[in-house]
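So, is this right?
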Amino acid sequence: MAEPNPTPGIHHVTCIAGDPQENLDFYVGTLGLRLAKRSINQDDPSTYHFFFTDAEGTPGTSMTFFPWEDMRQGKVGSGQVSRTAFRVPEGSLDYWEGRFDTYGVDYDDRVERFGETVLPFRDPDGLPVELVEVEIPDDDPTVPWTEFVPEEHAIRGFHSVTLWLADTQPTEELLGVMGFEEVGEEEAEGDTPGDVRTRFEATGKVGRYVDVLPTIQGGRQGHGTVHHVAFQTPTDDDQDAMRNAVRSRGLNPTPQIDRHWFRSVYFREHGGVLFELATREPGYTADEPLDDLGGRLVLPGKFEAQRDQIEAGLTDITIPEPENVEAEN
């Protein structure tokens, strides 16, 4: 069997929230991400699916949420993505600490990790998130969204995810199959002191890192946890080859599923984390012009015929309006 093309990195990360208005207010109004798609969970159309991205919905920038209001509070533990990290330009963290103070965001002291400065914080549901200062190259594929945060401080897509696993070796081998290269180890800080954090690097420029940490700490899915992490398989051929490679490792990937803005394959890796493989096409402009992304509730395919029923069951929300960012410079 031919080796699959290596993944460029993370495509999106999907999480579980509680109150949809709080979720919108935080990721748009506080973090300054673009609401690029306002839709529904295609497996549970009684709840929203929000997509927060850069200005153009570039692969590697989408933090998405299912706000299941009646679900219990979750707990991060083994078999989960324990941390999701965004990139911000070098020199931005003073701005972000000031913004977090203004908006009452719960954040921790900065830490150094693999030579980079990291600012850990939590969203309103307790989801662990991080900002990592990096040098943004001139040819970076992301486009900053500047309605709420100035360009020089704006989030520029994903930096990494951290996986908590009881046994790291099978997952590390799988990451190698997917095209990640081990690039370093260092002692972990924070929740798992004394353990070793191992970093793996993909071939792309955005969402290129996966960190692996051993832990037997128990967890449960709910508010404030990651539902799944998706990796880029840009074309259908790339995805099919990766699906076959994953299956050769004893895993059980699904057939391809049409998710309207990309085509997906899902599987649980050896440690229990739900992985997705997602294509680049057709993208978020398949059903809305770029200038109007997120402007309406999009109901993919068969769901449009159920619009009245679906809208009646969804919580009313208000999309945050842009603020005067000049006052914060």
